[in-house]
């Protein structure tokens, strides 16, 4: 049975097919009216998406472990316009995919451990979830200021991210930001967006203390999380976070005090922080300092 006769096909997975250089043409893929997901894994010789733009039902495209040398045409979109989720993991030479695609419905864009030079977000007006992690080479973000509906922005282990211009910052409401470098706050977000941010998660920050000056601007923050951070103390400016409702401390093994908690904190979660668990756990010598918090949860990793 040929591929074009699989009219009920919902998901197509191409896994380590080392002879494939192109996806099937339009006359084949166009017949797959129910195909909603394509996953391409380690197809290193792929140079053409063939007739993928004819897949009018395609919602999700995941590409893993490919060094694409794609042939592109300037007069047509490389990917189908109704695509909603696009994922790249351990890929290279993928800059042209976004540059040569019209993706007005794209909601989720995910990069992990990729070699990229530029990500152009200018026309991705429905983007709500944007993740970049493990992209260690220098790259440029362009078009952050054109976005207006981001819910989640995750930038982790990307030490050399730049904006196309200092003014090209995200300037609308953002619900949650996940970062490993506090300088990314002021690099990527406008002052207004920072002041309205409600959820911030900080991951893998190095040893010592955190420069807490930026916390003075987080006047709307309700949820703050620290994960796998090597800090020994919390920023003194945290005490001024009047709207903070929940604080999560996860795998912060060197953290040895909770001296600067906001007075109105409602929930404190501590997981895999051995020093804090010993000192502030029920029966610990410092437990009274946090006993006023309505909800206190200690969790231990197994």
From TrEMBL:
Highest taxon of the lineage: Eukaryota
Gene3D superfamilies linked: Ribonuclease Inhibitor (3.80.10.10)
PANTHER family per record: LEUCINE-RICH REPEAT-CONTAINING PROTEIN 57 (PTHR47186), OS09G0267800 PROTEIN (PTHR47186:SF3)
Protein name (Swiss-Prot/TrEMBL): Uncharacterized protein
